[in-house]
Amino acid sequence: MNADVVPTQESTEATRYWLGVALDVPLPGLFDYYAPTPVDAGTRVIVSFGRRQMIGMVAQVKAAPDIPPEGVKAVDAVLDDLPPMPDDWMRLVVFAARYYQRPLGEVMLPALPVSLRKVTGYTGKGARGGPVARVDKSKRKVAVVDAASAAPVQLNPEQAHAVQAITGAQGHQTFLLHGVTGSGKTEVYMHAAQHVLAQGRQVLFMVPEINLTPQFEQSLRARLGNADQPGLLAVLHSGLADGERLRAWLRISRGQARVLLGTRLSIMTPMPDLGLIIVDEEHDTSYKQQDGLRYSARDLAVWRGHDLQVPVVLGSATPSLETWHNAQRDHYQLLSLTQRARAVQLPQVRLVDTRRLALEHGFSPQLLDAVKARLAQQEQVLIFLNRRGYAPVVSCNSCGWVSQCPRCTAYTILHRTQGGRAHNHLQCHHCGYHAAVPRRCPDCGDQDLRPMGRGTQRLEEHLAEWFPQARISRIDADSTRLKGSAEALFAQVHAGEVDILVGTQMVAKGHDFAKLGLVGVLNADAMLFAQDFRAPERLFAQLMQVAGRAGRHAGAGEVIIQTDYPEQPVYQALLKHDYQGFARYSLEERKAVGLPPFAYQALLTAEARALKTAVAFLSEAAALPDTAPELYPTSDAVTRYDPVPLRVVRVANTERAQLLVESDSRPALQAFLTTWSADVAALATRHRVRCHLEVDPLEI
Ligand code: ADP
Ligand code: ZN
Ligand code: ZN
């Protein structure tokens, strides 16, 4: 029985045990209930809330309720199908709720697999595994020396040093493993993981995406598992069915599985013996959740590692500037891999200045020649397109009309297929609005409507005309909408059944194409001039990553970037594969104007029917601290900017505006936000405005 539990004196009937229960409802605070028997914090309960029954989690065991005891309801049931959630998990969700300014219940419950938070969900039938704490740890030592046969690799001195530093860490240390693609970072993760497993501890291995790289999962299984331990590895990502997700979650939280390979959501999984956290491609924006609890799984990984006193490894060829800055000021320990692991040269990067060139459907003669040459040598070619800059809109050739979404301030984009079948239609990428392509211009009636800009589909068509012998395949969000189709397409490329691959961001990630000799990059410039201050950083990372696909195995790889702005620092750094130079330049620039990582930000976004309602709400929200300055002791250290309309103001008939608050002190900003978020929530209710607060926003 928990020592905090004090039965009430007044109770005339049976003894009551008072509980603070977290519920997944958009209201702050915990809700008082009582149970007839003692209940530990971290236990799930079924309660009546309003007219509904819900699953809640006991967050607090209390001596007395906050409201008069006669108004407190009993819980309908205490669920004992699982042991209570462990303390360290409770600390993690409490921290996340506080840091990201969300009600605890909206963090705790969504962190569980769906069936554990539905009243009619999990019954525990056949899945009972006993309390995590009682599992005998001595039985779980993993004989990793069987597994080593799958790893004939002799670490080079830099890799060996990195593995030594990670496995030799006393308590917590965050490491930044920095090395270009192919420098052998994965090899370092594997060795460090094997060491930790051999000590009887668990490993959390986070990757930005799993669906796209099944080979990676296979090689991890082969390396870290062995014949006696088929269940050693558990995998978690949002693409799993509820049942699969629950099973993986149970196996890892009971300590039966020893390695968790997962996407961002896996950071919230209880792991009784967690001994190492790896965050691969730590700069990837997929680690940031974009709705609900807008957390950074990378940042929570660092917090969790610190809380548990275990090492955390952040790996990247192009670390985020936040992480790089932390390494520069010795908050993180930098481990560098400066060479490609195999005797393969880095690809040669060429910039093609397109200012005075006649392009043919977006291709420079240089790029077309290079494609021809590579195909003649039986090598593969990747044509990479930055989707953002290349959205094909339909326009009228005589009056300039452009296809626009009637519900948003955005253009609708031409799509030529749907679900794998040919089907011309227009679609809004913000709200999903669909429409047929008009036969004639709605403004002037002219029939000469044409796509403007080039999407991946049009590139594919032109390439097919120029290179009729080549087998061309396109990989983007459209061509891979069907489940399993991405895997199938990638498998074709790996099997050498594709000569030219046309693709977007999806192809840049994680793949190791043995025969790829040339990467051509079209229209990267669009991203250079995006309003977002992180755009150049993202462009650099993306181009480094896609360049890393070329020449990984044999021969000299080549990257051709077409640009109107070859003198830009981003491109000059890419020429030399010079991440450090780029980072130094960018950090100086950020410091001069006081942007992250030299400032900490939070963004309040409001949605209303009319923009002026949203803006009026934000103005009032910005003024809240002035009406009660005593509640905002750090407000002097926090800058509140003016509300601004969003770039895409209108989405699905609501209009949006945002307000940025900023401080050069994280604690000052946090103290401010704690009071402000509660005041803002109350104000939003009065104004009937929907809003959300995002701490450490990635896009502003
Ligand atoms: P990264 O994760 O940095 O992109 P990988 O770990 O995938 O790099 O390594 C790239 C390639 O080099 C892989 O095929 C890997 O097997 C190989 N490799 C890694 N380390 C070594 C080494 N020490 N000796 C030989 N080959 C290595
Ligand atoms: Zn027209
Ligand atoms: Zn729209």
From TrEMBL:
GO terms for biological process: DNA recombination; DNA replication initiation; DNA replication, synthesis of primer; double-strand break repair. The keyword Cytoplasm does not apply. Component of the replication restart primosome. It comes from Pusillimonas minor. Zn(2+) 1 binds at C396, C399, C441, C444. The lineage of its organism: Bacteria, Pseudomonadati, Pseudomonadota, Betaproteobacteria, Burkholderiales. PROSITE patterns: HELICASE_ATP_BIND_1 (PS51192). Zn(2+) 2 binds at C405, C408, C428, C431. It holds the Pfam family PriA_C. Gene3D superfamilies: P-loop containing nucleotide triphosphate hydrolases, PriA, 3(prime) DNA-binding domain. GO terms for molecular function: 3'-5' DNA helicase activity; ATP binding; DNA binding; hydrolase activity; zinc ion binding. Residues 166-337 form the Helicase ATP-binding domain. It is an enzyme of class 5 (isomerase). Its EC number is 5.6.2.4. GO terms for cellular component: primosome complex. Keywords: ATP-binding, DNA replication, DNA-binding, Helicase, Hydrolase, Isomerase, Metal-binding, Nucleotide-binding, Primosome, Zinc. This is Replication restart protein PriA. Initiates the restart of stalled replication forks, which reloads the replicative helicase on sites other than the origin of replication. Recognizes and binds to abandoned replication forks and remodels them to uncover a helicase loading site. Promotes assembly of the primosome at these replication forks. Binds 2 zinc ions per subunit.
